Amino acid sequence: EDVPSQTFDNKDYFCGKETFPVYESVFTEEGETIRKIAIEFEKPPQIEIHVWTIRKGILRHLYVEKLSKREFEGLPYFKLITRTTLSQWKIFSEGEAQISQMCESRVCRTELEDLVKVLYLEKSEKGHC
Predict the structure, then answer these.
(1) Cα gap 111→57, rounded to integer Å
(2) What pLDDT, in 10s, does the model give residues 7-62?
(3) Angle between the 86-102 and 109-117 helix axes, to the nearest 10 degrees?
(4) pTM here?
(5) What is the pLDDT of residues 68-121, one digit of tens each?
(6) Residue whose C-alpha is closest to residue 79's, from 42, 119, 26
(7) SS3 labels along the chain
(8) Which ranges carry the Chordin-like protein 1/2 C-terminal domain (predicted)?
(9) Which has the closest alpha carbon to 52: 3, 97, 1?
(10) Closest by alpha carbon to 22, among 102, 78, 94, 100?
(11) Do the beta carbons of residue 116 and residue 82 sit within 8 Å?
């Protein structure tokens, strides 16, 4: 199920909090789904990519790689899905660590989907910052 992408550069949209672009790449090869979630940091300028290997709904392998922006720009398949804050990224990373242990032996499709949804920010109503 696709969650519509958000493209907001306006800091007012998120109460002045700094946001970072989040990208996703999903492809299937040899019966495995490889799902990559990447965040682009300004300082230091690098991309952090979380790579999930899923077979029959079970998270088989999880690792994190860091690339320069130039290396990342050369990669195919990534699309911008949202912008997120550092605090939401921290929640995502901590949740990912818990899920990786929990899902080594059982199907976790919904848990993985819910974890990605953490990165999507809710638009704040004016005056509620």
Answers:
(1) 10
(2) 444 444 556 678 999 999 999 989 899 999 999 998 888 999 999 999 888 888 89
(3) 170
(4) 0.81
(5) 999 999 888 899 999 999 999 999 999 998 888 887 778 887 888 899 999 998
(6) 26
(7) CCCCCCCCCCHHHHCCCCCEEEEEEEEEECCEEEEEEEEEECCCCEEEEEEEEEECCEEEEEEEEEEEHHHHHCCCCCEEEEEECHHHHHHHHHHHHHHHHHCCCCCCHHHHHHHHHCCCCCCCCCCCC
(8) 10-129
(9) 97
(10) 78
(11) no
Residue 38 tokens read as 């990447």
User: Max Cα separation, the chain?
Assistant: 51
Residues 26, 81: contact at Cβ < 8 Å? no
Q: Is 2 exposed, middle or buried (0-12, 13-18, 19+ CB in 10 A)?
A: exposed
Cα dist from 52 to 18, 27, 36, 77, whole Å? 27, 11, 6, 15
